Amino acid sequence: MNSKLSYDIIGLGLFGAVILFGVPAFFSYDGFELNTFARYLSLAIVSMALALSWGTAGLLNLGQAATFGMGSYAMAMHLKLKASGDNLPDFMGWNNVEALPALWVPFNSLTFTLLAGLLIPAAVGGLIATFMFRARIAGVFVAVITLAFLVAFQLLVIEQQGFTGGQNGLTGLAQLELFGWTVDIYATSFYYLVGGCLMAALIFGLYLTHSKFGLVLRAIREDAERTRYFGYNVANYQTLIFCISAGLAGLAGMLYALVLEFASPTYMSVSFSLAIVIWCAVGGRESVLAAAMGAILVNLAEGRLSDVFVEGWHMMLGVLFVAVVMFMPRGIYGVIVDAGRALRRRGGSEEFAETPSFDTPLNTKQES
Amino acid sequence: MDVVLNQIFAGLSFASILLIIALGLAIIYGTMGVINLAHGEFVMLGAYATWALQTHLGLGVVTALPLVFLAVAVVGWVIEKVIVQRLYTRPLDTILATWGIGIILQQAVRMGIGAESKFVKGPEWLSGNIEIGALVMSNYRIFVIFLSIMIVTGTWLLMTRTEFGMKLRAVIQNRGISECYGVEAKKVYSLTFAYGAGLAGIAGALITPLFSTIPTMGTGLVVDAFLVVIVGGLGSLVGTAAAAMLIGEVTALFSIVINDTLGRIAVLAGIILLIRFRPRGLFPADTRR
Fold it and tell me: Is residue A318 part of a domain?
C-alpha cells in the first residue's frame, strides 16, 4: 500500500511539473494554445471526478454531465447578469420574461455563485444517491437511473427557455472578476488558475483514495454485501462519494464555462456524458491521476486529429474505445501496472502478482 | 374527446414500434445480461437498408422486411462473434463497448451514405385512413400495430414451442448446467443476439415512412426502449409488452395534458421512481437468478 502511495505521489509530481511548467514552456506562453489546453484541464477534472465514483466505488454514473452542466450554468448565470448590467439578460426579453426570476437573483453575488457551482451539483448528486442507494440499487440500474436523470434534466433546461436560454444556452458573457483580478482567458494566469484547480482536485482525490474511506469504497466495489456484513453503512459511503464526485464535476463545469465563454445544453447531452466515460476508461478508472491524463490525451488527440480527419475522427474514437474496453479493461493505467509487475517478477522477486482473471466462473452473470 | 382518442391511437402505434425494438433488447439483455447500447444503431441500419432496397431495387417497405431482418441480423451476428462474446463476464463493460460500436456504425453510415435525411415512401396499398367517428386511423399505423402483435406472438412461440427456444430458456436459467447437457451456449448466444438485432432492423424498416431517416435516429429510441425493458422486468415477454404500451400511451397522453417535453420528463421521472421501488420491473420473471 505504501509503495503504491509513493508511486502516486511521484506520478502526481511529474504530472504537475508537466502541466504547470512543461506545457506553458512548450507553447512558449502562447495565449491561444494555453487557452485550448486549459479546456482540456477542466475536462480532466470531470474525468477524475468520475474515476472517484466509478473506478473507486464501482458506481457507473452516466449522468456526470448533468452536474457538470449545473456548474457551468451557475458560472454563466453570474457572468450573464454582469454583462447585462441593470437590464434583464437579453434572451429573457425575447421570451417575454419581465422581471428577473427569483432563481437568478442570488447569482448577482460572486461568493454565492462560486459556492453554488460546487454545492448545488453536490446536493443534487447527494439527493439522487440517497434515493438510489437507500434502496440498494446497484450495477446496471445505477447507470440507467443516472442516464434517465440526465436526459430529463437536459430536456428541462432546453424547455425552460425564459430561465436558461433554451437551446442557445447562455452567451455573451462578461469577464469574471475574482478579488479585483479580471480574468482574461488568454492570459497565462488563467491557465494557472485552471491548472491549480486540477492539481488541487487531484491531491484531494488521491488523499481520498488512499484514506480509509477509499479503502472502504474499494471494498464496496468488490463486494457490497460483504462490506455491509462488516458493519459499514454502504449507502452512506456511496452517497458521500457521489456528492464529492458531483461537486468536482460542478467545479469542472464552472471552469469550462469560463474557458469557452458560454454555457450550452450540449454540455448535458448523453454523448458528452459518455465521452467523459471514455476519457476515464482510456486513462484508467482505478486511478484519479490516470483518468485525468486520459481526458487530456483523448482531447489532445481529438484537437489534433479532428482537423485532419474531419469525418473520420468519430470513427477512430469509437474504434479506440471498443479496443480499450476489450483489450485494456483497466485503461493505460492497467497496462503500466501490469508491465511494472512483470518487470518486478523478472527481477527475481518472489511476489506472485494476482493478475485479475476475466474468464472467471459462469455464474458471474449474477452481478448484472 | 376526439383529441384524446387520436392521441391514444398515436400512442398505440408508437408503442408497437417501441415494443419491437424493446423486444430485441429484452431478449439480448435477458439472455446474456448485455446492455446493448448499439441497438438504436441497429434500428438505424434497418431504416437505411429499407431505403437502399427501395431506391436501388424498387422494393416496398413491406416486401423488404424479411431482407432487412436478415441483413441486420447478420450484422448483429458478426458483432456478437467479434466483440460482445468476449465481454460476457463483464456486464458493465458491455454498455461501453456497445456504445462504441454504436458510434462506429453511425459514423460509417454518415461517411458512406451521407448525413442528410433520406426519404422512404410508405406502401401504396396501405395509404388512406379508416375513420370511426372523429377517430382517424391511418392504415399503415394499423398495419404496424398488427405486425408488432404478430412479432410478439412469434417470439413467444419461438421461445416456448421450439427446440431453440428450449435451449435458450435453459441457458438463461443456468448456463453451466445447460452446457453439461450439451447445449452450445455460445451458439445460442450468437443466434439470440442476431435475432434481437434483426428485430431492431424490422422496427427500423417500419418507422421509415413515419420518421425521417438520419444517422442519429436510433439514439433517442434506444433510451426509450431500454427503459421499457427495465420497467417490464427482465426476461419477461408479457412485461415488455405491457411496459411498451404503458410508456407509449403515457407519453402520448401526457403530451396533450402538459406538452411534449414536459410529458417526456414526467415519464422519465416516473420510470426513475419505478426502478427505485420495483427494481426488478413490473413483471419480474422468476427464471433469472
Answer: no
- The reply to whether residue B111 touches residue A141, judged by beta carbons under 8 angstroms, is no
In whole angstroms, give the CA distance from residue B103 to residue B40.
Answer: 11
CATH class of B2-277: mainly alpha
Residue A135 grid cell: 434502496
Which residues are bridge partners to B131 per DSSP? Answer: B136
The pLDDT value recorded for residue B169 is 86
CB of B77 less than 8 A from some CB of A: no
Would you say residue A301 lies in a domain?
no
Of B83, B264, B276, the CB nearest to A137: B276
pLDDT of residue B285: 55
Measured between CA atoms, the residue of chain A closest to residue B115 is: A311
- In contact, A163 and A101? CB cutoff 8 Å: yes
Strands B135-138 and B129-132: antiparallel
ipTM: 0.78
Diameter over CA atoms, chain B = 60
The three cell numbers locating residue B34: 448485455
Tens digit of each residue's pLDDT (9 = 90 or more) over A280-311: 888 888 888 999 999 998 888 888 877 777 77
Q: Do B83 and A135 touch (CB under 8 A)?
A: no
Q: Rounded distance, CA B237 to CA A308, Å?
A: 48
Q: Do B268 and A149 touch (CB under 8 A)?
A: yes
One-letter-per-residue 3-state SS of A324-336: HHHHCCCHHHHHH
Give the structural domain span for A197.
Answer: 3-270
For residues A303 and A310, give the distance between their C-alpha atoms in angstroms, rounded to a whole number: 11
Total of domains in chain A: 1
Tell which residue, B159, B122, B142, has the closest CA to residue B23. B159
Closest CB from B100, B227, B261 relative to A321: B100
φ/ψ of residue B81, rounded to 5: -60, -45
Instruction: Quickly tell me which residue has 494557472 as its cell.
Output: A192
Asked if B19 and B241 touch (Cβ cutoff 8 Å), the reply is: yes
- The 10 Å Cβ neighbour count of residue B119 is 11
Residues of B in contact with A306 (CB under 8 A): none
**A245, part of any domain:** yes
- A105 in a structural domain: yes
Of residues A364, A234, A339, A241, the one with CA closest to residue A284? A339
| Residue in the block written with cell 408479457 | B238
* pTM for this predicted structure: 0.83
Angstrom distance (rounded) from CA A283 to CA A330: 8
Tens of pLDDT along A64-107? 999 999 999 999 988 888 888 777 777 787 777 777 787 888 88
- The H or E element that residue A82 is part of is helix A64-84
